[in-house]
Amino acid sequence: MTLSGLMQDRPLMISSLVEHAARFHPRTEIVSRLPEGGTHRTDWAGIRRASCQVAHALAALGVQPGERVGTLAWNSWRHLALYFGVSGSGAVLHTINPRLFPEQIAYIANHAEDKVLFFDVTFAPLVEKLAPQLGSVKTYVCMTSREHMPGIDVPDLRCWDELVGAQSGDFAWPEFDERTASSLCYTSGTTGNPKGVLYSHRSTLLHTLMELAPDTFGIGSRETLMLIVPMFHANAWGAPYAAAMVGARLVLPGPHLDGRSVYELMRDERVTFSQGVPTVWLMLFQYLDANPGIDPRALSLRRVGIGGAAVPRAMLERFERGFGVEVTQGWGMTETSPIGVISKLLARHDDLPEEELVKVKLKQGRGVWGVDLKLVDDAGQVQPWDGESRGHLRVRGPWIASGYFKEPPGGGAASATPRGGLESLGRPGAFQGEGGSPIDEEGFFSTGDVATIDADGFLQLVDRAKDVIKSGGEWISSIDVENAAMGHPGVAEAAIIGVAHPTWQERPLLIVVPREGQAVDKQSVLDFLATRIAKWWLPDDVVFVEELPHTATGKLLKTKLREQYRDHVLPTA
Ligand code: ADP
């Protein structure tokens, strides 16, 4: 028999975050660049007020606890108020990625059975087009003022200012079981249909506590945090909740994510910390390349958080040397809320020589409290943490998905259909979870990623299992080759894929977007790589393109590239 503790059993509620922020940091600013143009300023007291108004508005629309409320919106104060108002009232906030194909958006909104859809003016034409297909949506709310209301034909069209703005700015937040669903986010589903990850109040608050710690993102009340990562992508990596928990100042860029807008907003609002995927930072770099007179060291920026895709060495060095800022890399997925591991150096790394240190910094990171990590081979055998042994990565913890929304347990594997197995066994395809449950017998979720973990617990991603290139039964890590290629001064972005080869089964083809104003050709790229990667990893061919395809979350769209270059004949073939 165990003995019950005598501590108060208060549920962990998302509403408590905005209440705390409004009480202890009422005047801390929330700055938004609006889709309609112009800048909006409010503060945490204002966000609380708007969140309460949202809760009243949902009640007025008859939204019941547990029902889903969709959003198609950029990062703004209104979207922030929905984060707290929808979840706080007991409904489920369903943030939809507007960059998905319209058919995918319709599929997702229907699958989620959204009752109300909040949308930014930018998406009015899209919403009008989709409305006839959205059976469950009863009310459409445009997140704007009366003067900017679009003239579109959708059922029960409302204006934010009239519907939400007219409500009382006080609301008695209900208390309920902390395991209650709070928000819903679909994976982009580059293969198959998107799958819904359903977060809870409890998972969200535990994830937030971890995210604030000094060895993770270390966010405090003195921070001005610019959310470049969209609020429709894995809850903006939990940053809206984290900012509220400590009352940080928030800067929300709306749709203005081009290099110039990002730079100017950072400068003007004295942003100290910002988070985003590598592609947005590449856009910022391109702007700076075109404007060599600008010295980014003049920014107040001290740190950036990067995740969603590997941080190339050139990006790390540019931030460190060119901006004078610290880079914190994280690995995670929609299914992991999203933080799985975070890269922070240990004290003993202080004495490492530069080359060694860079290697550590480029690893995705170490486990944080709450996330158990496991590597297994194709047969499910646990692999050692020696920095060498590769395995399928599995994770377990209180903010890791236990299944997908409305999918039967055991249905639908983690978003990976591997193309090859681990070379250690030379047995392709035997990925546990494929077509079966994403959760193994010990409760670990199969991520679909392949990684190594070293003795210090630093995880290094080798590849998505489905992006692995198999050459003569051996693996080539596309992440390593791409990162090395992006160190070439003439390369803006690079992607590597496997192309059929008569002898080696597959050989790598490198696809490069040249950097503007720089000379680059195949031989110089190959010469550059020759000193940086294993000889047999060298691409058999290099092609140059103007642009690479990306997924709706900013990752290289390898499925499309593989399709496009399926018949590419390698000069070695
Ligand atoms: P999507 O909806 O596109 O799946 P996610 O954000 O859920 O978006 O994608 C998660 C995947 O992104 C991971 O499984 C991993 O392959 C990749 N990823 C995330 N962070 C990193 C990182 N730091 N380095 C390399 N890959 C990463």
Task: Assign the structural class, choosing from mainly alpha, mainly beta, alpha/beta, alpha+beta, or little secondary structure.
Answer: alpha/beta
The name CATH uses for the topology of the largest domain is Rossmann fold
Report how far the terminal alpha carbons are from each other: 69 Å
Widest sheet, order of strands? 2-1-11-10-12-13-14-15-16-20-19-18-17
Specify the biggest β-sheet: 13 strands, mixed
Give an account of the 3D structure:
The chain is of the alpha/beta class and 573 residues long. It has three domains: 15-336, Rossmann fold (3-Layer(aba) Sandwich); 372-463, Roll (Luciferase, domain 3), CATH 2.30.38.10; 467-564, ANL, C-terminal domain (GMP Synthetase, Chain A, domain 3, 2-Layer Sandwich). It contains 16 helices and 25 strands. Strands 2-1-11-10-12-13-14-15-16-20-19-18-17 form a 13-stranded mixed β-sheet, with helices on both faces. Strands 7-6-5-3-4-8-9 form a seven-stranded mixed β-sheet, with helices on both faces. A three-stranded mixed β-sheet has the order 23-24-25, sandwiched between helices. Helix 1 (15-24) packs antiparallel against helix 2 (44-60) and helix 1 (15-24) crosses helix 3. It binds adenosine-5'-diphosphate. Adenosine-5'-diphosphate (ADP) is lined by residues 187-188, 234, 307-310, 329-334, 338, 364, 415, 447-449, 461, 464, 551, 553, 555.
